[in-house]
Amino acid sequence: MTNTVANELVGAAWPSAHPGTDPVLYGHVLLDPLGAFEARSLQTFRLVYTVGRYGIDDTGSIRVVFRFMGDWGALQTNDPKGYNYVTAHASTGARLSINYANTGHQRPWFKALTVKLHGGYLSEGDNITIVFGDTSRGSLGMQMQTFCEPGFEFKVLADVCAVGHYFPLSETPNIAIVPGEVYEWKAVLPSLRRCREVFRLGIKAEDKWGNPTDQASGRFRIESNHSVKGLPEMIDYPIGEKSLIIDNLFIEKTGVVRIKLFDESGQSVVEAGPMVVHEGNLSGYWGDLHGQSGESIGLTTSRDYFEFAKNMSFLDVTGHQANDFQVNNSFWKYLNQLTAEYNKEGRFVVFPGYEWSGNTAVGGDRNVFFSKEGCQIRRSSHALLEDRTDIDTDAPTASQLFEDLQEEDCVVYAHVGGRYADIKQAHDPRLETAMEIHSAWGTFEWMLTDGFPLGHRSGVVCNSDGHKGRPGASYPGASTFGAYGGLTCFLTDNLSREGIFECLRRRHHYGTTGCRMHMDVTVKFNNVVTVFERDPKFFPESRVFSSSEVMMGDIVQTSESEAILKICIHAHSSIERIEIRNGTEIIETFRPYSPSDLGSRIRVIWSGAEYRGRGRQSSWTGRAVFKKCRIERLAKINAWNHERKLERCSQETVEWDAITTGNFGGFDVWLEEADDSELNLTCNRGVIQVPLNSIGFEDTVLEAGGLERRLRVFRLPSENHHREVHHDLLITLKPKEDNPIWICVTTEDGFQAWSSPVFVFK
């Protein structure tokens, strides 16, 4: 297999001291079987290590290490009937011990199985055989990871002299993880285009875990509710391909476009859209600018990463964000070559950049994006880099980073990952234009709202921060990342690096948890107001203009005491609610239905996090008993991990075992209920026991401590067909402070979207 990441591009520091330079001293390894294996299938692998010329001393060992991001099941030696059972034996009969740890080695090879020799030694030609997923005593095998990887490596290290230094063998066996059968179809359109502007329709099939699969085929009829130039009536989707793109489409008249695909039996397979077509100046370009590949902590190659973004997520904009302390100079040069190659302005915009990965104590994670290639990378440290020749270019604090970037044409995001950004300690509004409030790590509205009392005027972005090589369609799989990755819609007239940067500097963008809804948020005044192109607190020479209506992200000065917020939403799914906010205050919760529309559907939602740091995962285990009811139907919400329990256990009971990391999950039940029906909900965070007829339009809330952690129960219409909302609200402006006016939209299928605030002051 040859699809592994090039070793010279990976920031991984091996021991500088080792027994010798000739690979024959350390031995060699063979893996059986090799080949391609389906994601999340059960397999057995036999790895045979043959001892080299040095032999292995008593208490010496070998270690098989794997990349941290794999979500295959944890290896174990205690339950021979359980998944992922591992055994090892020596050809001489020498005693071996086996130890597995999820963080048993250094980044990015955190996952480590160590086989140690006791009471003897091994000579050249002896061997150690390790069986992964040993089925001889009842195990079903080793679980493969849920996502595809062309070069899944079994990297073997040897400590032949028993000194505690593990040095890699010269060759690494690897296999391919490939997609499974078709689970669902996806079709993707842009959300906003101008009349006669060219766009594309992307079509793909995904397996159960969200991998684009090459096992799909079929003949489909295409039906659009709006005339689309260049759109065929029929298409043949060829087996062996992971996507199909219909390009050079355009529309001559305004409208809202939704396109459906029908199979040969006449069944509707998938719907794309909505796409709003207008005569205005702006279009909406979708991007996921934050993710990594196997050259750092992630998986697959950086070239595969960009191919996925363009051809399988159908993005307009992307970027690559490797942890700086793993970016060696070879990879930084190569990455800049790739971004230059893939950037095609007007079609697909790619930014060079990196993740400044300083600890929270010195400012926390930032994303840095450059407008051109060849810029100096300012690392937080050289933690995993052997080459120290450029260590004097490091920026060890976020404040220093901002200072060093002043002369660069760049923008910066603050985000939450393993290390969350502390915007109270360091923030430069001249560079740091946006807060990433959702990613695969969870949802973090506090990243934005923490800045309101500090006078920060930042926009909203959402990205995947994915590590699995799937920008724009980043599923969490079976890992502790419990959320689907986010997307950002850039509202600009120019799909170019310059156009996207200007959009960011004016905060003309919004973020979602992965859907592509159209969102139009404007604020209208009775008289003209002063609109600033840049924040006047930091750009006193900012260009200004006058208008009586402004868009999301604008900074506005007015003498008026009121303003009208105008909202237009076109969504892929029914809209559950829209929260309208002034700063942290929710001034209205708008639902597109009334209390009289409520039916027999009850929604249960759990959300929140433990705290702001790395271990923010909150567990939710519980049971809801709908007494004197019959559950007619159950629908899961944001249950991305198919192996976690969320199921109907009887005609009146639902049980679950879930996690949240600031995001939310839950379920709907459609009930046959009686006048005296009750809800008896018991979970690890508390209890809700109420008559079922008391569950209505407003949330019944169980506060559960932690960070915005709570469980909510409320009633919905049995069917909600409101996918489009137009709503106006008169807002009273606070006189002596900023009025950050923004909205949060929640759709019934579990997605959310946030507008960048309009900042109004007097």
Structure in words:
The structure is a single chain. Helices cover about 5% and strands about 45% of the residues. By secondary structure, it is mostly beta strands. It folds into five domains: about 5-180, Immunoglobulin-like (Sandwich); about 185-280, Immunoglobulin-like; about 285-515, Metal-dependent hydrolases (TIM Barrel); about 520-590 and about 725-760, Immunoglobulin-like, CATH 2.60.40.10; about 595-715, Immunoglobulin-like (Sandwich). Strand 24 (about 315-320), helix 2 (about 330-340) and strand 25 form a beta-alpha-beta unit. It is globular.
Please give the structural blueprint.
Layout: E1 28-32, E2 36-38, E3 42-43, E4 45-50, E5 61-66, E6 86-90, E7 95-101, E8 111-118, E9 127-132, E10 142-143, E11 149-153, E12 155-159, E13 167-168, E14 174-178, E15 184-188, E16 192-194, E17 199-206, E18 218-224, E19 234-237, E20 244-249, E21 255-262, E22 268-278, E23 283-288, H1 302-311, E24 317-319, H2 329-342, E25 349-351, E26 353-356, E27 366-370, H3 398-404, E28 410-414, E29 432-439, E30 442-443, H4 446-449, E31 459-462, E32 487-492, H5 497-505, E33 509-512, E34 518-532, E35 544-551, E36 555-557, E37 562-570, E38 575-582, E39 585-590, E40 601-609, E41 618-637, E42 646-650, E43 653-660, E44 664-683, E45 686-691, E46 700-703, E47 707-716, E48 724-732, E49 739-747, E50 752-755, E51 758-761
Parallel strand pairs: 2-14, 16-22, 23-24, 24-25, 28-29, 29-31, 36-51
Antiparallel strand pairs: 1-4, 3-10, 4-9, 5-8, 5-12, 6-9, 7-8, 11-14, 12-13, 15-17, 17-20, 18-19, 18-21, 21-22, 23-32, 26-27, 27-28, 29-30, 32-33, 33-50, 34-35, 34-36, 34-37, 37-48, 38-39, 38-49, 40-44, 40-47, 41-43, 41-44, 42-43, 44-45, 46-47, 49-50, 49-51
